[in-house]
Write a structure and sequence with these properties.
Layout: H1 2-11, H2 16-24, E1 32-39, E2 42-52, E3 61-70, H3 79-90, E4 97-101, H4 110-114
Parallel strand pairs: 3-4
Antiparallel strand pairs: 1-2, 2-3
Length: 135
């Protein structure tokens, strides 16, 4: 129960239901892994990584970093840098894999510059209504 409460504090009470439903959904795409970052037995961040195949012949396989949430009082304390360092050493980001990091429109976290990430794509989405109808 302690972990659930900690995740709720990091993710935000309003959005935790969405996270819980995604974690419990048996249809989650293969290749998506959800991570929890702890410090002193306290959840301080959560994030997800989804593996993609090569998008172009001869290119590196790609990982998408998404759903990044931090405990509000710990933003700016170096946790994001720890996550990027872990991605580089544990998942071979930057050598074996290319990383795409998703942010909300208009956001450009400083840690992206610190780790050499540069803006490379603009993403547009086509929302789908329930029932599968196009909007």
């Amino acid at each position: 129960m302690h972990d659930a409460e900690s995740i709720r504090e990091v993710y935000g009470a309003d959005a935790v239901g969405d996270l819980v439903s995604r974690l419990a959904d048996s249809r989650t795409e293969a290749g998506t892994t959800h991570y929890v970052v702890e410090s002193d037995a306290l959840v301080v961040a959560v994030f997800s990584v989804t593996a993609l195949a090569r998008l172009r012949p001869g290119g590196k396989s790609r990982l998408i970093l998404h759903e990044i949430k931090f405990r509000p009082n710990l933003r700016g304390t170096g946790i994001a840098g720890d996550i990027f360092q872990w991605l580089a050493t544990s998942l071979a980001v930057g050598t074996e894999y290319e990383l795409l990091a998703l942010t909300a429109p208009g956001q450009h976290p400083a840690v992206f510059d610190d780790f050499g990430l540069s803006e490379s794509h603009h993403v547009f989405k086509w929302p789908v209504r329930s029932g599968g109808e196009r909007t």
